[in-house]
Write a structure and sequence with these properties.
The chain is built from 15 helices and eleven strands. The protein has a seven-stranded mixed sheet with strand order 1-2-4-3-5-11-6. Strands 8-9-7-10 form a four-stranded antiparallel sheet. Helix 1 packs antiparallel against helix 9, helix 2 packs across helix 5 and helix 9 crosses helix 13. The chain folds into two domains: 348 residues, Zn peptidases (Aminopeptidase); 112 residues, Alpha-Beta Plaits (2-Layer Sandwich), CATH 3.30.70.360. It is 37% helix and 15% strand. By secondary structure, the chain is α/β, with parallel strands linked by helices. The protein starts with a helix and ends in a 17-residue tail after the last helix.
Length: 533
């Protein structure tokens, strides 16, 4: 594989390297790969430990404590409580004077009601009703920490100047952390950002991907209580206002762009039927594909909320819970990363791993049940007209510093996403192999950025002269908005005592599956009829 790495990099249009950056056994990249492989066990322990904590956004207490302690033990200086986020932090390590500042980020929060035992292809929560890693955010920090430690060794040995910065995406499932960090200048001295996210393949992209940005806002209506049967005419129903707002928004959808996405949940509908609700709240996501579209739909939502309050003689206030800018990724950085992706390639999946992946796909009635990816994702230009879809607050970061996202193959294709089934593979050999593959790519790309001034300049030129030439960042947070750190607090307080019983102990068990007594691969539920050919 080392020879393959060297030949691919020599053939890349972005081989602007200083001597020694090649991936041969004596080159920096070859030694970075070796450094990652030497930390395979650490990667597994980080991945499995965070999986076992199963923490929701803003409540990633055990996860952040574990990671910051680990980084401090490895020489990083850690600032905690970043941007008013109790579980936020920034870890820094520098060598020499000058050199680029390269930041590595990945999300850390889980999904509500996604508790799931890993390594079994059927629904079986560890704690009924509890959260779990039903997207796979337990894995990204393992990718980054291992890559950073491998590069750190090389920077010290080869006297390479630069700074490594590690940080977590807090409450990404609430799209509610990164915009506060951007607003507060956390990235003001950063030259490039490499973000990592779990995937079922190894890939990256440039330009504007399919998807949306959004504003997340909760509207709270205040009315007057009364006896619902005895004197309803004396009440002013806040719930009526919520329902009127929702009806009006659903009517308005027909007259919005087809590309918009919007959703709501009633977070407070009153106390009990015989009391006219004096307070009620509804939480909206307004999604669109550009800054103007997001602002336009948010303004429409505000108008409808005000109208609902006027119709019910109630008062309305609103609280922004989070924002996410539309994403835009850096082309030169993505090109360099994809050269490294081709060099690393997909993991060599075993027959057992493929059989397990197909069993999981069968369990969720996936349309395709072909197992794990066998070919790399293609590196193609962005669509001329990107499709609508989900959001990620890495978008805010991408508008203030050259940024890419690298996806790594730690999960199974054809799963529904944000679902218990997406947790099944995330503490198995599939996740562990994907983490190591991703870590190699990240380490190699960091070396590119450290040793190739022309690449760094190309990234800056693209950011200044292409990405932000006609569109500048339009933040949606005000100076007075604060992170909604109360979210998920009660849920985690309810489930944490039971979840704590399942925390991974790497000193006693080689893997989390060993601790749970799960044999890999388990393909059928005990007592189930054997599958027919």
């Amino acid at each position: 594989m080392i020879k393959m790495v060297a030949s691919l990099l020599l053939g890349s249009a972005l081989t602007l390297a200083a001597p020694g950056a090649a991936a041969g056994p004596g080159g920096l990249k070859g030694r970075a790969i070796a450094g990652v492989e030497a930390r395979t066990k650490l990667a597994q322990e980080i991945n499995d430990s965070i999986f076992s904590f199963s923490e929701l956004g803003f409540q990633e207490v055990e996860t952040s404590r574990y990671l910051t302690d680990l980084l401090e033990k490895n020489g990083f200086t850690v600032e905690r409580g970043t941007s008013g986020l109790p579980t936020g932090w920034v870890a820094r390590w520098s060598h020499g004077s000058g050199g680029p500042v390269i930041a590595l980020g990945s999300d850390i929060d889980g999904i509500p009601k996604a508790s799931q035992k890993p390594g079994i292809p059927w629904r079986e929560p560890m704690v009924e009703g509890a959260p779990g890693h039903g997207e796979g955010h337990n894995s990204g920090q393992a990718v980054n920490v291992v890559a950073a430690l491998a590069v750190k060794d090389l920077m010290e040995r080869e006297n390479i100047a630069g700074t490594l910065v590690l940080w977590p995406g807090v409450a990404e499932e609430l799209v509610s952390g990164k915009a506060f960090m951007v607003r507060d200048g956390v990235f003001k001295d950063v030259d490039e950002v490499i973000f990592t996210h779990v995937s079922n393949n190894l890939g990256t992209a440039w330009g504007a991907p399919s998807g949306t940005g959004l504003v997340s806002v909760e509207y709270t209506f205040a009315g007057e209580s009364a006896h619902s049967a005895g004197a309803p005419w004396r009440g002013k129903s806040a719930l009526d206002a919520v329902e009127l707002m929702n009806v009006a928004w659903n009517m308005r959808r027909e007259h919005l762009r087809a590309e918009q996405r919007s959703h709501y949940v009633i977070t407070d509908g009153g106390d009990q039927p015989n009391v006219v609700p004096s307070r009620a709240s509804v939480w909206y996501y307004f999604r669109e594909q550009d800054f103007k579209g997001i602002a336009r739909n948010f303004a429409i939502g505000n108008t409808i909320a005000d109208a609902a309050a006027a119709m019910t003689d109630t008062k309305v206030t609103r609280r922004i819970l989070g924002t996410a800018a539309p994403r835009h990724f850096n082309k030169p950085m993505a090109e360099a990363a994809y050269a490294n992706i081709k060099a690393v390639g997909l993991p060599a999946w075993t027959d057992d791993e493929q059989a397990f992946a197909r069993a999981v796909q069968k369990s969720v009635a996936a349309e395709k049940q072909e197992g794990l990816a066998k070919e790399l994702d293609k590196f193609e230009p962005p669509l001329a007209e990107p499709k609508s879809g989900g959001s990620d607050d890495i978008g805010d970061v991408s508008w203030v510093v050259p940024t890419i996202t690298i996806g790594y193959p730690s999960n199974i294709p054809e799963l529904p996403g944000h679902n218990w089934s997406n947790a099944i593979a995330m503490a198995t050999p599939i996740a562990h192999k994907g983490v190591v593959a991703g870590s190699k790519v990240v380490a190699m790309t960091v070396i590119d950025l450290l040793t190739k001034p022309k690449l760094r300049q190309a990234a800056k030129d693209y950011f200044a002269n292409v990405q932000t030439k006609d569109q500048k960042y339009e933040p949606m947070l005000s100076a007075t908005d604060t992170p909604p750190i109360d979210l998920n607090r009660e849920t985690m307080a309810r489930y944490k005592p039971e979840l704590r019983k399942y925390y991974y102990d790497p000193a006693r068990y080689p893997t989390y599956l060993d601790q749970l007594g799960i044999k890999f691969p388990t393909l059928e539920k005990p007592g189930a009829a054997p599958a027919s050919d």
